[in-house]
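Model it.
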Amino acid sequence: MITTIIAQQMFDGKNIIKNQAISFDEQKVLAFDSVKGAKEIKVPGLLTAGFIDVQVNGGGGYLFNHDPNLMALNAMVLAHSRFGSTGLLPTLITSGIETITSAANVIASAIKQQVAGIVGVHFEGPHISVPNKGIHSSEYIRPLTESEMDIYCRDDLGVKIVTLAPENVTAAQIKRLTEHKVKVCLGHSNASFAVTQAALAAGAVGFTHLFNAMSALTSREPNMVGAALLDEHSWCGLILDGHHVHPATAKLATRAKKIGKMMLVTDSMSTIGSSQETLEFDGHKIQLANGKLTSQTGQLAGSALDMITAVNNARRMLDVSLEEALRMASQYPADFLGLNTSTPQLAINANADFTLLNTTNNSDLHVSQTWIGGKQIY
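Modeled.
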């Protein structure tokens, strides 16, 4: 079935266009015009490409670490679609080999079955630094062995990200991962500037939640944060909830980083799209209060951030335009993942993944409808 939406406004990735028609089937965008025989819908608000979140620990009451199954993946997609996300990389926090294997197997199944919204998988750890582990369990932190390498190098997992600490992984291992189409991100690390640069030279292409759980920029040692901001070729994920990074620090970093290389991520836990206010993870009792998730020790424990809130925060905290905030949630993650030929641009033959935004009384945007693969799921 072909559907034509006539949007009050549409953002195509470059410009906001008024009263624009877009026609699509159950997979792709077909035309920027009405198509004969199509079901025609007029909608108020701003239609834009769906958001892509490269770091999603959970949603809808499910945590991927605890529930590496298709039911959990579907619940996560549905939960995040309420906030404009149409593409997720379910993220597995530092775990034992059995959990990593289970997670990989269910992702492979989701990719094979073309489960809506599942783009690939993000393995955050276990090859990280103990001093900067955050809430990751030191019990599972370990060197990268052939057992894990075999999993990461599988070709049935969609887009693959591995976050690691370069001081604990060799340059040869990073190169091998990249040769098997793994996006190597650096994070949960105490690495020096020189070690970080060596990892970038070996093929690392990103930094996981910039500033958080990584060696800080100082006057005499740029460390990982300095290397991340200076490098023109890598991408940085930014948790813009006002808790993980001070707004002024985030603003400064965005101005320093090359345009197109700073992307919004949520690092969200199971509370998103659910009534859940407490959860347990690896012995940590985690409490949601005032939009912030913390363990009993006071540590940040993932986030309660959703993508549309991140977009609103980008406009407010970073002082960027609406168009740039939307690109930070859609185009830039797609560029990072190598998906820019299919999504999230609103273009002919692009995936029919988009979201409809409307404005609240305080000028913030909220999501009113979301389509994935041409099907309205919210």
